[in-house]
Write a structure and sequence with these properties.
The protein is an all-alpha fold and about 180 residues long. The chain is built from nine helices and no strands. The protein is elongated and about 60 Å long.
Length: about 180
């Protein structure tokens, strides 16, 4: 993975293609996961992720490292996801889809548990679901989630606490 300074050097040396290849390798899954947490549809998330990397490619010359590369990319991903979500709301209403089993695999051991947890996570309010997926699935820190979703760290912690309480209550109050 390239450092922020190395990305700036590559762009300055007219080697954006090398910089983008490294960025794609490092952030492809994370950008897709963030997009999915917003649009809740695999195909739409793939489209959003592709658009994110097109925007990153175009904007690389303006990256100045005032924010970290990851924060810059996640901000582009968040804004692109929100734009896609607004566009989808104008076209057709979002359908409630279950969280894919591959994502739930990070949380549970058996396929039955994964499916049950996926349904529970999918029923969380949007902001709680996004925070849960970023914090647990993508293993982002409170600060990183706050930066990605443009909210205070305290709000992230509150949303996680409320989501855990809802999940526990919905699962019948068990610790599992």
């Amino acid at each position: 993975m390239l450092t922020d300074g190395e990305v700036i050097q590559l762009v300055g040396a007219n080697r954006r293609d090398v910089a983008l290849a490294a960025i794609l390798q490092a952030y492809r899954r994370k950008v897709f996961g963030l997009a999915y947490s917003f649009v809740r549809n695999r195909e739409a998330a793939e489209d959003v992720a592709q658009e994110v990397f097109i925007r990153v490619w175009r904007a690389l010359p303006s990256f100045d490292a005032r924010a970290s590369l990851s924060t810059w990319i996640y901000t582009i991903a968040r804004n692109t996801s929100l734009s896609a979500l607004r566009a989808r709301h104008r076209e057709v209403p979002l359908e409630a889809t279950a969280l894919e089993a591959t994502a739930a695999a990070e949380f549970a051991e058996s396929s039955a548990e994964r499916a049950a947890l996926a349904r529970l996570v999918d029923q969380l309010p949007d902001r709680q679901r996004q925070v849960v997926l970023l914090y647990y699935l993508q293993e982002q820190s409170h600060e990183e989630v706050a930066s990605m979703l443009a909210m205070p760290v305290g709000t992230v912690k509150t949303l996680l606490h409320r989501a855990r309480a809802r999940l526990t209550a919905a699962a019948g109050g068990s610790d599992r």
